[in-house]
Amino acid sequence: MRAIVLSEPGPVENLEIRELPRPVPGPGQVRIRIEAFGINRSELHLRLGYAEGAKLPVVPGIEAVGTVDAAPGTDLEPGQQVATLMGGMGRTFDGGYAEYTVVPRAQVIPFRSALPWATIGSVPETLQTAYGSLTIGLDLRAGQTLLIRGGTSALGYATAALARETGATVLATTRRPERLDDLARHGVDHPILDDGAIAARVRELAGGGVDAALELVGTPTLPDTLAATRVHGTVCFAGMLSNQWTIPDFYPTGYLPSGVRLTGYSGDAGSLPAGVLQNALDRIEAGELSLGPVTVYPFDRIRDVHRDIEENRVSGKVVVLTGQ
Question: Any idea which UniProt keywords this protein has (predicted)?
Fold first, then answer.
Protein backbone atom coordinates (compact mmCIF):
# COMPACT_ATOMS: atom_id res chain seq x y z
CA MET A 1 0.00 0.00 0.00
CA ARG A 2 1.00 3.64 -0.38
CA ALA A 3 1.58 5.51 2.85
CA ILE A 4 3.01 8.82 3.94
CA VAL A 5 5.74 8.40 6.54
CA LEU A 6 7.29 10.93 8.90
CA SER A 7 10.69 9.68 10.07
CA GLU A 8 11.77 12.72 12.06
CA PRO A 9 10.46 16.21 12.83
CA GLY A 10 11.27 18.96 10.39
CA PRO A 11 10.23 20.57 7.11
CA VAL A 12 7.56 19.29 4.74
CA GLU A 13 10.22 17.33 2.86
CA ASN A 14 10.29 14.94 5.82
CA LEU A 15 6.86 13.65 4.72
CA GLU A 16 7.69 10.82 2.31
CA ILE A 17 5.35 8.65 0.23
CA ARG A 18 6.48 5.03 0.54
CA GLU A 19 5.30 1.53 -0.28
CA LEU A 20 4.59 -0.33 2.96
CA PRO A 21 3.15 -3.79 3.67
CA ARG A 22 -0.59 -3.76 4.12
CA PRO A 23 -1.20 -3.97 7.91
CA VAL A 24 -2.70 -7.18 9.30
CA PRO A 25 -5.56 -6.86 11.83
CA GLY A 26 -5.64 -9.01 14.94
CA PRO A 27 -8.72 -10.10 16.88
CA GLY A 28 -10.83 -7.11 17.82
CA GLN A 29 -9.13 -4.88 15.27
CA VAL A 30 -10.45 -3.38 12.05
CA ARG A 31 -8.54 -2.86 8.82
CA ILE A 32 -10.00 0.09 6.93
CA ARG A 33 -9.54 0.79 3.26
CA ILE A 34 -9.12 4.55 3.46
CA GLU A 35 -10.91 6.71 0.92
CA ALA A 36 -10.19 10.11 2.47
CA PHE A 37 -8.61 11.66 5.52
CA GLY A 38 -8.98 15.10 7.06
CA ILE A 39 -5.96 17.19 7.93
CA ASN A 40 -5.68 18.53 11.47
CA ARG A 41 -3.46 21.07 13.17
CA SER A 42 -2.12 18.40 15.50
CA GLU A 43 -0.46 16.71 12.50
CA LEU A 44 1.38 19.93 11.76
CA HIS A 45 2.48 19.95 15.39
CA LEU A 46 3.69 16.35 15.00
CA ARG A 47 5.78 17.25 11.95
CA LEU A 48 7.27 20.24 13.76
CA GLY A 49 8.20 18.09 16.77
CA TYR A 50 5.52 19.26 19.20
CA ALA A 51 3.79 15.93 19.80
CA GLU A 52 4.35 14.46 23.24
CA GLY A 53 4.63 10.67 23.25
CA ALA A 54 4.87 10.29 19.46
CA LYS A 55 6.84 7.28 18.21
CA LEU A 56 8.71 7.98 14.98
CA PRO A 57 8.86 6.84 12.25
CA VAL A 58 5.08 6.85 11.94
CA VAL A 59 2.30 7.25 9.40
CA PRO A 60 0.61 10.46 10.65
CA GLY A 61 -3.11 11.14 10.64
CA ILE A 62 -5.58 11.21 13.55
CA GLU A 63 -8.67 10.48 11.43
CA ALA A 64 -9.81 8.67 8.30
CA VAL A 65 -12.95 7.47 6.53
CA GLY A 66 -13.46 4.51 4.25
CA THR A 67 -14.78 0.98 4.25
CA VAL A 68 -14.12 -2.07 6.38
CA ASP A 69 -11.61 -4.36 4.66
CA ALA A 70 -11.30 -6.96 7.45
CA ALA A 71 -12.56 -7.07 11.03
CA PRO A 72 -11.86 -10.43 12.69
CA GLY A 73 -13.84 -11.08 15.85
CA THR A 74 -15.93 -7.90 15.61
CA ASP A 75 -19.49 -7.00 14.68
CA LEU A 76 -18.38 -5.18 11.53
CA GLU A 77 -18.60 -6.57 8.01
CA PRO A 78 -16.36 -5.93 4.99
CA GLY A 79 -17.70 -3.09 2.89
CA GLN A 80 -19.31 -1.13 5.72
CA GLN A 81 -18.66 2.60 5.69
CA VAL A 82 -16.76 3.70 8.78
CA ALA A 83 -14.90 6.58 10.34
CA THR A 84 -12.02 6.33 12.79
CA LEU A 85 -10.25 8.96 14.85
CA MET A 86 -7.91 9.61 17.75
CA GLY A 87 -6.91 6.88 20.22
CA GLY A 88 -3.21 7.15 19.37
CA MET A 89 -3.64 7.14 15.59
CA GLY A 90 -0.71 8.77 13.87
CA ARG A 91 1.18 9.12 17.12
CA THR A 92 1.74 5.78 18.85
CA PHE A 93 0.69 3.66 15.86
CA ASP A 94 0.26 4.26 12.14
CA GLY A 95 -2.65 6.53 11.29
CA GLY A 96 -4.71 7.81 8.41
CA TYR A 97 -2.15 9.11 5.89
CA ALA A 98 -2.29 5.83 3.98
CA GLU A 99 -4.43 3.57 1.80
CA TYR A 100 -5.11 1.23 4.75
CA THR A 101 -4.96 1.48 8.52
CA VAL A 102 -5.62 -0.93 11.40
CA VAL A 103 -7.33 0.37 14.52
CA PRO A 104 -9.15 -1.07 17.55
CA ARG A 105 -12.86 -1.68 17.05
CA ALA A 106 -13.61 0.74 19.91
CA GLN A 107 -12.49 3.72 17.83
CA VAL A 108 -14.49 2.87 14.71
CA ILE A 109 -17.84 4.54 14.01
CA PRO A 110 -20.09 2.96 11.35
CA PHE A 111 -22.36 5.14 9.20
CA ARG A 112 -24.24 5.17 5.91
CA SER A 113 -24.01 8.02 3.43
CA ALA A 114 -24.20 8.75 -0.28
CA LEU A 115 -22.10 11.88 0.10
CA PRO A 116 -18.78 12.11 -1.79
CA TRP A 117 -15.81 10.83 0.20
CA ALA A 118 -14.27 14.31 0.12
CA THR A 119 -17.27 15.66 2.03
CA ILE A 120 -17.44 12.73 4.45
CA GLY A 121 -13.73 13.05 5.15
CA SER A 122 -14.20 16.61 6.36
CA VAL A 123 -16.61 15.67 9.13
CA PRO A 124 -15.49 13.24 11.88
CA GLU A 125 -12.77 14.96 13.91
CA THR A 126 -14.09 18.46 13.32
CA LEU A 127 -17.61 17.43 14.33
CA GLN A 128 -16.32 15.55 17.37
CA THR A 129 -14.42 18.56 18.68
CA ALA A 130 -17.14 21.10 17.86
CA TYR A 131 -19.86 18.96 19.42
CA GLY A 132 -17.80 18.17 22.51
CA SER A 133 -16.63 21.75 23.00
CA LEU A 134 -20.19 23.06 22.95
CA THR A 135 -21.74 20.33 25.10
CA ILE A 136 -18.97 19.34 27.52
CA GLY A 137 -16.63 22.31 27.43
CA LEU A 138 -19.19 25.12 27.40
CA ASP A 139 -22.66 23.63 28.06
CA LEU A 140 -24.01 26.15 25.56
CA ARG A 141 -27.73 26.91 25.77
CA ALA A 142 -30.32 28.55 23.52
CA GLY A 143 -30.35 32.33 23.84
CA GLN A 144 -26.71 32.60 24.91
CA THR A 145 -23.89 34.42 23.11
CA LEU A 146 -20.80 32.57 21.88
CA LEU A 147 -17.44 34.00 20.79
CA ILE A 148 -15.27 31.80 18.55
CA ARG A 149 -11.66 32.97 18.53
CA GLY A 150 -10.30 31.58 15.26
CA GLY A 151 -13.53 31.48 13.30
CA THR A 152 -12.23 30.60 9.82
CA SER A 153 -10.60 27.38 10.95
CA ALA A 154 -12.44 24.14 10.19
CA LEU A 155 -13.39 23.87 13.83
CA GLY A 156 -14.51 27.49 13.92
CA TYR A 157 -16.94 27.07 11.03
CA ALA A 158 -18.33 23.81 12.40
CA THR A 159 -18.80 25.21 15.90
CA ALA A 160 -20.61 28.24 14.50
CA ALA A 161 -23.01 26.00 12.59
CA LEU A 162 -23.82 23.84 15.60
CA ALA A 163 -24.12 26.84 17.92
CA ARG A 164 -26.60 28.57 15.62
CA GLU A 165 -28.69 25.40 15.58
CA THR A 166 -28.62 25.44 19.38
CA GLY A 167 -30.16 28.89 19.26
CA ALA A 168 -27.10 30.90 20.24
CA THR A 169 -25.91 34.22 18.84
CA VAL A 170 -22.43 33.73 17.34
CA LEU A 171 -19.50 36.14 17.23
CA ALA A 172 -16.37 34.89 15.43
CA THR A 173 -12.98 36.33 14.58
CA THR A 174 -10.56 36.33 11.68
CA ARG A 175 -7.27 38.14 11.21
CA ARG A 176 -7.94 38.63 7.49
CA PRO A 177 -10.41 41.30 6.33
CA GLU A 178 -11.21 39.35 3.16
CA ARG A 179 -12.56 36.47 5.28
CA LEU A 180 -15.15 38.51 7.19
CA ASP A 181 -17.72 37.90 4.44
CA ASP A 182 -16.98 34.16 4.60
CA LEU A 183 -17.94 34.17 8.27
CA ALA A 184 -21.17 36.02 7.54
CA ARG A 185 -22.06 33.61 4.72
CA HIS A 186 -21.62 30.70 7.12
CA GLY A 187 -24.06 31.99 9.70
CA VAL A 188 -21.90 34.11 12.01
CA ASP A 189 -24.02 36.94 13.40
CA HIS A 190 -21.07 39.23 14.18
CA PRO A 191 -17.83 38.69 12.22
CA ILE A 192 -14.95 40.49 13.96
CA LEU A 193 -11.56 41.49 12.56
CA ASP A 194 -9.03 40.29 15.11
CA ASP A 195 -6.19 42.69 15.89
CA GLY A 196 -5.31 40.87 19.10
CA ALA A 197 -7.42 43.13 21.35
CA ILE A 198 -11.10 42.57 20.68
CA ALA A 199 -12.49 42.35 24.22
CA ALA A 200 -13.94 45.88 24.23
CA ARG A 201 -15.68 45.33 20.88
CA VAL A 202 -17.08 41.99 21.98
CA ARG A 203 -18.38 43.37 25.26
CA GLU A 204 -20.08 46.17 23.31
CA LEU A 205 -21.75 43.73 20.91
CA ALA A 206 -22.71 41.25 23.63
CA GLY A 207 -23.92 43.70 26.25
CA GLY A 208 -21.15 43.31 28.81
CA GLY A 209 -19.48 40.13 27.59
CA VAL A 210 -20.33 36.82 25.96
CA ASP A 211 -21.79 33.90 27.88
CA ALA A 212 -19.33 31.46 26.31
CA ALA A 213 -16.12 31.60 24.30
CA LEU A 214 -14.20 28.97 22.38
CA GLU A 215 -10.48 29.68 22.26
CA LEU A 216 -8.97 28.14 19.12
CA VAL A 217 -5.99 30.45 18.57
CA GLY A 218 -4.07 29.52 21.71
CA THR A 219 -2.46 31.13 24.70
CA PRO A 220 -1.47 34.43 22.99
CA THR A 221 -5.13 35.50 22.70
CA LEU A 222 -6.52 33.69 25.75
CA PRO A 223 -6.25 36.66 28.17
CA ASP A 224 -8.19 38.88 25.75
CA THR A 225 -10.79 36.14 25.22
CA LEU A 226 -11.23 35.84 28.99
CA ALA A 227 -11.65 39.62 29.18
CA ALA A 228 -14.42 39.41 26.56
CA THR A 229 -16.45 37.01 28.71
CA ARG A 230 -19.01 38.03 31.33
CA VAL A 231 -18.95 37.14 35.01
CA HIS A 232 -20.02 33.49 35.36
CA GLY A 233 -19.33 32.99 31.66
CA THR A 234 -17.12 30.15 30.42
CA VAL A 235 -14.10 30.03 28.13
CA CYS A 236 -13.16 26.64 26.65
CA PHE A 237 -9.60 26.15 25.42
CA ALA A 238 -9.74 23.67 22.54
CA GLY A 239 -7.31 24.79 19.83
CA MET A 240 -3.80 26.05 19.17
CA LEU A 241 -3.76 27.68 15.73
CA SER A 242 -0.89 29.86 16.96
CA ASN A 243 1.18 26.77 17.87
CA GLN A 244 1.38 28.14 21.42
CA TRP A 245 -0.40 26.26 24.21
CA THR A 246 1.49 26.85 27.45
CA ILE A 247 1.38 29.79 29.88
CA PRO A 248 4.73 30.59 31.52
CA ASP A 249 4.58 31.24 35.27
CA PHE A 250 0.80 30.84 35.36
CA TYR A 251 -0.69 32.71 38.33
CA PRO A 252 -4.45 32.01 38.37
CA THR A 253 -5.55 34.95 40.50
CA GLY A 254 -3.73 37.43 38.31
CA TYR A 255 -4.57 35.72 35.04
CA LEU A 256 -8.27 34.90 35.34
CA PRO A 257 -10.86 37.70 35.55
CA SER A 258 -13.02 37.41 38.66
CA GLY A 259 -15.88 35.00 38.13
CA VAL A 260 -14.91 33.88 34.60
CA ARG A 261 -14.57 30.12 34.24
CA LEU A 262 -11.82 28.46 32.15
CA THR A 263 -12.28 24.90 30.90
CA GLY A 264 -10.69 22.72 28.23
CA TYR A 265 -11.85 20.08 25.80
CA SER A 266 -10.08 17.18 24.08
CA GLY A 267 -12.10 14.16 22.99
CA ASP A 268 -11.71 10.90 21.10
CA ALA A 269 -13.82 8.51 19.03
CA GLY A 270 -15.95 7.65 22.04
CA SER A 271 -16.83 11.34 22.42
CA LEU A 272 -18.67 11.32 19.06
CA PRO A 273 -21.90 9.31 19.33
CA ALA A 274 -22.69 7.37 16.15
CA GLY A 275 -26.10 9.02 16.05
CA VAL A 276 -24.56 12.50 16.06
CA LEU A 277 -22.27 11.60 13.15
CA GLN A 278 -25.09 9.96 11.17
CA ASN A 279 -27.42 12.90 11.77
CA ALA A 280 -24.80 15.40 10.62
CA LEU A 281 -24.08 13.42 7.44
CA ASP A 282 -27.79 13.07 6.69
CA ARG A 283 -28.41 16.77 7.15
CA ILE A 284 -25.38 17.74 5.06
CA GLU A 285 -26.70 15.47 2.30
CA ALA A 286 -30.14 17.09 2.58
CA GLY A 287 -28.63 20.57 2.32
CA GLU A 288 -29.74 21.45 5.84
CA LEU A 289 -26.28 21.75 7.42
CA SER A 290 -22.87 23.03 6.37
CA LEU A 291 -19.77 22.67 8.51
CA GLY A 292 -17.83 25.15 6.39
CA PRO A 293 -15.68 25.21 3.24
CA VAL A 294 -13.66 22.14 2.23
CA THR A 295 -10.44 22.16 0.17
CA VAL A 296 -9.47 18.84 -1.43
CA TYR A 297 -5.96 17.69 -2.34
CA PRO A 298 -4.66 14.52 -4.02
CA PHE A 299 -2.53 12.08 -2.02
CA ASP A 300 0.74 12.96 -3.72
CA ARG A 301 0.47 16.64 -2.77
CA ILE A 302 0.76 16.03 0.98
CA ARG A 303 3.74 18.38 1.23
CA ASP A 304 1.71 21.16 -0.38
CA VAL A 305 -1.08 20.44 2.10
CA HIS A 306 1.18 20.96 5.09
CA ARG A 307 2.85 23.98 3.53
CA ASP A 308 -0.46 25.68 2.78
CA ILE A 309 -1.82 25.04 6.28
CA GLU A 310 1.38 26.22 7.94
CA GLU A 311 1.27 29.44 5.90
CA ASN A 312 -2.48 29.94 6.53
CA ARG A 313 -3.40 29.82 2.83
CA VAL A 314 -6.60 27.83 3.27
CA SER A 315 -9.83 28.51 5.14
CA GLY A 316 -11.93 25.71 6.60
CA LYS A 317 -11.22 21.98 6.38
CA VAL A 318 -8.59 20.31 4.22
CA VAL A 319 -9.21 16.75 3.00
CA VAL A 320 -6.92 14.37 1.11
CA LEU A 321 -8.30 11.69 -1.21
CA THR A 322 -6.22 8.51 -1.35
CA GLY A 323 -7.42 7.61 -4.84
CA GLN A 324 -6.04 10.75 -6.45
Answer: NADP, Oxidoreductase
